[in-house]
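Annex B. Sample input.
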Amino acid sequence: HTIPAKLKIVMLITYCNLFVAGIVFYRIRNQSSSAWDWLILLGGVFNQWLLHDWIEACVTLGIFSVFYLFCIGKIGFVATRPLVYLGTISYSLYLIHEYIGWITIRELQAMGLNINVVILIALTQSLLL
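Annex B, continued. Sample output.
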């Protein structure tokens, strides 16, 4: 796939389809779906194949399928208290986890800690923040 890296960054096309899919799933859950919604979701899967590979496209299709089933009330059992909490903090977690997590991982690895312990500490830290 030959899209230049700088163009991907400027156009925010690497993962923007996943953000847009979240909006579409919100519409499906709270309104009804239209042909445009399905085209947008299909375009998101195609984008994953185009920019990444067919494996990521298949994973995206699977995730979209699970989200759809949740939106239409077929798998409501996933709305457990811990998962609802993670959903509530997901945006702030998204904003802080990578930078703080990598700094924590790098510093603790330099101290010689086991990688599994390091990851557990970074995960706990991100969730608590």
